Write a sequence for this structure.
């Protein structure tokens, strides 16, 4: 497995140009993708100044509430309605924009005025976007001739959506060839698109010691370990009920990633299995350690989480996906043999029990996951460095 912690070869040239990584805190994945590339860039070329900016931190409070809060409410309480909106807004197919799109972009241009001032005050050599919200606004700055500013984009799912479309994006980094074709329908030439995979933090490919992890986390080394997650910032599905049902169906130890959900964490801690066969875990940046010792993960089909699983060669049982990008991720992973997609919490439990009782099937999923992994963070960092060096010689 590739180790992204190895630094790339450097020459004597200095790269003082600033790179701004631009995301939006809608879920955790987009910010994690930005952090992954920033860390890979730091390891490869520490002289490059980088800065992270959350676009939602620059918009008015009412817009932030509607944008992030509305998304959370939709995917947790009204997933079918969210899926309908996802499909209806995934148009038009071609480059020409409809009036609805133009109205949305005018609103976003207005609410992002503070972000535009932020970019203009810094005049970075490159803006790397891992979420689509601010891409059209930054692209418009490029189109207006803002000195030196260029826009690159990282699509963080296995399918693109019309919201990702922005003019004046110089380079695109995508998960697979399917996304290249989707961008092509919007007029994006294949030569501007790199199939890099989805970037995950270099720590996910660093070598780890299983025995040390089990000792540090107080986990059994002689029992299958199942990771169970419903999301980092908001929980999707009856996580506590699934954990107890899994424990009843097989001889496994279940580690539940409760994220920022304090109510779920308290409920898990009160269960009789807690501390013996159940380990509740609050928000942590050490999930890669738990993934190292687990034999499979039960998770929603987020682009970043599932890519982290491929980095570890970790089999996946996917909870019923929310219609939209999660459903697309689930289809792609299942098509490549790396995940089992379920339709209910009961099916989740049944599939986990079946896989733990079938080592051959479990290993087949793990091998397929390993084949899908691409060292995207390192690839993107290499391209940034190459581009900055080329610009420095102009």
């Amino acid at each position: 497995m590739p180790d992204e912690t190895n630094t790339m070869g450097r020459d004597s040239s200095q790269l003082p140009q600033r790179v701004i990584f631009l995301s939006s805190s809608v879920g955790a994945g987009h910010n994690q993708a930005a952090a992954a590339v920033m860390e890979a860039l730091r390891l490869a070329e520490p002289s490059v100044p980088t800065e992270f900016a959350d676009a939602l931190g620059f918009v008015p409070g009412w817009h932030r509430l509607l944008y992030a809060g509305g998304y959370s409410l939709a995917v947790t309480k009204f997933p079918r309605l969210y899926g309908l909106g996802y499909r209806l807004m995934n148009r038009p197919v071609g480059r020409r924009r409809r009036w609805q799109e133009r109205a949305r972009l005018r609103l976003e241009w207005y609410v992002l005025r503070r972000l535009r001032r932020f970019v203009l005050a810094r005049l970075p050599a490159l803006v790397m976007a891992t979420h689509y919200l601010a891409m059209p606004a930054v692209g418009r700055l490029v189109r207006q001739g803002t000195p030196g500013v260029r826009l690159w984009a990282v699509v963080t799912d296995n399918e693109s959506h019309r919201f990702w479309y922005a003019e004046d994006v110089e380079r695109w980094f995508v998960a697979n060839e399917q996304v290249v074709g989707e961008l092509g329908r919007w007029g994006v030439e294949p030569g501007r698109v790199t199939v890099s995979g989805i970037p995950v933090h270099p720590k996910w490919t660093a070598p780890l010691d299983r025995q040390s992890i089990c000792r540090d986390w107080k986990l059994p080394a002689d029992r299958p370990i199942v990771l169970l997650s419903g999301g980092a910032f908001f929980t999707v599905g009856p996580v506590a009920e699934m954990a107890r049902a899994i424990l009843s169906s097989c001889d496994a130890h279940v580690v539940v990633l409760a994220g920022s959900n304090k109510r779920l964490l308290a409920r898990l801690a009160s269960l009789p299995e807690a501390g013996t066969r159940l380990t509740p875990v609050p928000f942590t940046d050490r999930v890669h350690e738990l993934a190292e010792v687990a034999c499979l993960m039960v998770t929603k089909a987020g682009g970043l989480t599932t890519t982290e699983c491929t980095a570890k060669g970790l089999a996946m049982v996917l909870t019923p996906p929310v219609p939209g990008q999660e459903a697309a991720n689930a289809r792609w992973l299942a098509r490549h043999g790396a995940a089992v997609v379920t339709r209910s919490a009961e099916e989740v439990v049944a599939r986990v029990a079946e896989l733990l009782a079938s080592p051959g099937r479990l290993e087949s999923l793990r091998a397929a996951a390993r084949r899908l992994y691409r060292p995207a963070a390192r690839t993107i960092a290499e391209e940034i460095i190459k581009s900055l060096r080329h610009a420095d010689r102009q």
